[in-house]
Design a protein that fits this description.
The protein contains ten helices and no strands.
Amino acid sequence: MSSRTPEPTPAGPTTARVNDRELRADARRNRERVLRTAQQLFTSEGLGISLDEIARRAGVGPGTVHRHFPTKEALYLAVAIDQIRQLVAEGEALTATGDPAALFTLLSRMMASGAENAAVKSALTAAEFDLRDAAPDAAADLTHQVALLLDRACRAGVVRHDVTVGEVMAIVAGAFAAIRHADADTSRERSAHIAQIILDGLRPRPR
């Protein structure tokens, strides 16, 4: 019987693929953790917080943040796009409920998200970033979800029939400006109140 220690078996293609998938999944989770942490910190502490501090709060190394987001502007843009994608997911969930008034829920969430991320959007505007150009697919997906909910709301008679999805999206964009003009973007209660006033204009007019 041989006393030689067996040499380790080289990792085959299947093992390499599994490890690669695990690494990609881990990188994805780290990126999402950084995005969520950055969004919360930008809202609560402002845009001055450093990338290294965001890394510390997210529980990842500074290199992880700098690798995914080499500049502050890149992180701002990623946070804003991530918020759009979260809204798309919320729209899909609301579409599945069958609730004819779900349009108002999604629009309220969109307005709240805009108020929460007002500083980030201002920074992107200052850097001459347009989200519709930077993330056309995400923007189109969100518009599509709004269109589906608007169509259902119109058929159910809970929204006036003379409004288009383009007008609804413009109303949401205008709501961001109204909330900021009223200095209400740091107050969920006040921003929600202004949003409700604006959304009431979409309801059917009394006959």
